[in-house]
């Protein structure tokens, strides 16, 4: 009788290698050009402007293209591989090279002609000023309901901060 022993660690390692191969195959475009990872972003609302930060370590500024519309920002670039020579003797490289593109939809319209950009220590920071209508969005709230004949409803008083509207209605 032949008994077979189960080797769980060997099976797990085999499964891990198969997953690694599957993801390596998925990260290549046609022609063997690899995808670079898309940058991680952070978007903040500072009242009058949006601040968009993108993490782009090791990318040269000349390999970066930024385009802004009123509704979105597109960040594109290319991580270029250094020339390999026999002297460098790479045994393994896990760096991702190639082109990337990230489209970031914005929650409010911006004045795209006034966007400011800085790039320092691998972090791209875009200052995106909001349009006037997005900054000073005041909403008038009308009271619904019927009043006794001849009475006039008091005018509601409202204040706005950013996108939040506070309405105070006087007692009747």
Main CATH class of the domain at 38-81 and 92-141: Mainly Beta
The helix-and-strand class reads alpha+beta
Count of individual beta strands: 9
The averaged pLDDT comes out at 75
Helix content, binned percent: 10-25%
CATH architecture of the domain at 38-81 and 92-141: Sandwich
- Gyration radius (Cα, Å) is 28 Å
Number of helices: 2
Taking strands numbered 1, 2, ... along the chain, how are they ordered across the largest sheet? 1-2-7-6
Low-confidence stretches: 29-34, 155-172
Q: Which series of helices and strands comes N to C?
A: HEEEEEEEHEE
Q: Which descriptor suits the 3D outline?
A: elongated
Proportion of residues in β-strands: 25-35%
Main beta-sheet strand count, sense and barrel state: 4 strands, antiparallel
Report, as a whole number of angstroms, the end-to-end distance.
94 Å
Fold-level CATH name of the domain at 38-81 and 92-141: Immunoglobulin-like
Folded structure, characterized:
The protein is 13% helix and 33% strand. The protein has 2 helices and 9 strands. It has helices spanning 8-26, 132-135; strands spanning 40-45, 49-55, 64-68, 72-79, 98-105, 116-120, 123-129, 157-161, 164-168. A hairpin with a 2-residue loop joins β6 and β7 (123-129). The longest helix has 19 residues, at 8-26.
């Amino acid at each position: 009788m032949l008994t077979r022993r189960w080797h769980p660690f060997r099976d797990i390692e085999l499964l891990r290698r198969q997953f690694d191969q599957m993801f390596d195959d998925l990260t290549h475009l046609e022609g063997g050009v690899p995808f670079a990872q898309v940058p991680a972003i952070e978007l903040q609302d500072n009242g009058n402007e949006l601040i968009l930060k993108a993490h782009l370590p090791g990318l040269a500024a000349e390999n970066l293209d930024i385009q802004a519309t009123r509704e979105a920002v597109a960040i594109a670039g290319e991580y270029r591989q250094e020339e390999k020579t026999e002297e460098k003797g790479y045994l393994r490289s896990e760096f991702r090279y190639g082109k990337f593109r990230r489209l970031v939809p914005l929650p409010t319209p911006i004045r795209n002609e006034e966007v400011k950009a800085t790039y320092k220590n691998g972090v791209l920071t875009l200052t995106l000023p909001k349009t006037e209508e997005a900054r000073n969005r005041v909403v008038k709230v009308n009271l619904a309901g019927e009043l006794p004949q001849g009475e006039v409803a008091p005018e509601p008083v409202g204040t706005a901060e950013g996108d939040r509207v506070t309405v105070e209605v006087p007692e009747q």
